[in-house]
User: What shape does this take?
Amino acid sequence: MATYSMASGTLNLTVPRGTELVATLDFSDDTTGYTVTSEVYSLVSGSTLYSPSVTVVSATAGQHTLTLTEANTEAYGSGSYGIRVIRVAPGTVTRRLIDGILEVKP
Assistant: This one.
Protein backbone atom coordinates (compact mmCIF):
# COMPACT_ATOMS: atom_id res chain seq x y z
CA MET A 1 0.00 0.00 0.00
CA ALA A 2 1.39 3.39 -0.97
CA THR A 3 1.14 6.45 1.26
CA TYR A 4 0.86 9.94 -0.22
CA SER A 5 1.38 12.97 2.03
CA MET A 6 0.23 16.21 0.49
CA ALA A 7 -1.77 19.35 0.65
CA SER A 8 -4.51 19.76 -1.94
CA GLY A 9 -3.11 19.18 -5.37
CA THR A 10 -2.51 16.75 -8.18
CA LEU A 11 -1.90 13.03 -7.77
CA ASN A 12 -1.44 10.78 -10.79
CA LEU A 13 -1.80 7.03 -10.26
CA THR A 14 -0.99 4.03 -12.46
CA VAL A 15 -2.44 0.56 -11.93
CA PRO A 16 -2.44 -2.64 -14.02
CA ARG A 17 -5.92 -3.51 -15.30
CA GLY A 18 -7.79 -5.91 -13.02
CA THR A 19 -5.69 -5.25 -9.91
CA GLU A 20 -6.56 -3.56 -6.64
CA LEU A 21 -5.09 -0.17 -5.72
CA VAL A 22 -5.02 0.86 -2.06
CA ALA A 23 -3.44 4.21 -1.22
CA THR A 24 -3.27 6.03 2.11
CA LEU A 25 -3.78 9.75 1.63
CA ASP A 26 -2.40 12.03 4.33
CA PHE A 27 -3.78 15.57 4.01
CA SER A 28 -2.27 16.71 7.35
CA ASP A 29 -5.51 18.56 8.00
CA ASP A 30 -8.23 17.66 10.52
CA THR A 31 -11.17 16.20 8.61
CA THR A 32 -13.34 15.46 11.65
CA GLY A 33 -16.99 16.07 10.75
CA TYR A 34 -16.25 16.07 7.01
CA THR A 35 -17.26 13.52 4.41
CA VAL A 36 -14.50 12.57 1.99
CA THR A 37 -15.58 11.06 -1.34
CA SER A 38 -13.89 10.16 -4.61
CA GLU A 39 -14.82 9.60 -8.20
CA VAL A 40 -13.23 8.30 -11.36
CA TYR A 41 -14.56 10.06 -14.43
CA SER A 42 -14.32 10.07 -18.21
CA LEU A 43 -11.80 12.58 -19.56
CA VAL A 44 -13.95 12.80 -22.72
CA SER A 45 -17.44 13.40 -21.33
CA GLY A 46 -16.67 14.31 -17.70
CA SER A 47 -19.27 11.82 -16.50
CA THR A 48 -18.59 9.87 -13.32
CA LEU A 49 -17.83 6.20 -14.03
CA TYR A 50 -17.57 4.97 -10.44
CA SER A 51 -16.83 6.13 -6.92
CA PRO A 52 -13.89 4.34 -5.26
CA SER A 53 -14.25 3.92 -1.52
CA VAL A 54 -12.59 6.34 0.88
CA THR A 55 -12.30 5.22 4.50
CA VAL A 56 -11.06 7.16 7.48
CA VAL A 57 -7.77 6.08 9.05
CA SER A 58 -7.49 9.10 11.39
CA ALA A 59 -9.83 12.06 10.90
CA THR A 60 -7.88 14.28 13.31
CA ALA A 61 -4.68 13.66 11.30
CA GLY A 62 -6.48 13.91 7.94
CA GLN A 63 -5.58 10.36 6.91
CA HIS A 64 -7.83 8.34 4.62
CA THR A 65 -7.52 5.20 2.53
CA LEU A 66 -8.57 5.27 -1.14
CA THR A 67 -9.44 1.83 -2.57
CA LEU A 68 -10.05 0.84 -6.17
CA THR A 69 -11.07 -2.81 -6.39
CA GLU A 70 -10.08 -5.35 -9.02
CA ALA A 71 -13.59 -5.02 -10.44
CA ASN A 72 -13.18 -1.22 -10.69
CA THR A 73 -9.94 -1.37 -12.68
CA GLU A 74 -11.21 -4.21 -14.87
CA ALA A 75 -14.65 -2.82 -15.76
CA TYR A 76 -13.67 0.20 -17.84
CA GLY A 77 -10.57 -1.22 -19.51
CA SER A 78 -7.14 0.18 -20.16
CA GLY A 79 -6.83 3.91 -20.65
CA SER A 80 -6.62 7.26 -18.92
CA TYR A 81 -9.32 8.52 -16.58
CA GLY A 82 -9.71 11.49 -14.30
CA ILE A 83 -9.71 10.94 -10.54
CA ARG A 84 -10.70 13.37 -7.81
CA VAL A 85 -11.08 13.31 -4.05
CA ILE A 86 -13.51 15.80 -2.53
CA ARG A 87 -14.04 16.91 1.06
CA VAL A 88 -17.57 17.97 1.97
CA ALA A 89 -17.99 20.09 5.11
CA PRO A 90 -21.08 19.72 7.26
CA GLY A 91 -23.70 21.30 5.02
CA THR A 92 -22.79 21.73 1.37
CA VAL A 93 -19.37 23.41 1.25
CA THR A 94 -17.00 21.29 -0.85
CA ARG A 95 -13.28 21.42 -1.52
CA ARG A 96 -11.43 19.39 -4.11
CA LEU A 97 -8.47 17.81 -2.32
CA ILE A 98 -7.00 15.85 -5.23
CA ASP A 99 -7.40 16.09 -8.96
CA GLY A 100 -5.34 13.82 -11.17
CA ILE A 101 -5.09 11.12 -13.78
CA LEU A 102 -5.66 7.41 -13.24
CA GLU A 103 -3.78 5.40 -15.84
CA VAL A 104 -5.03 1.80 -16.18
CA LYS A 105 -2.42 -0.30 -18.00
CA PRO A 106 -3.22 -3.43 -20.06
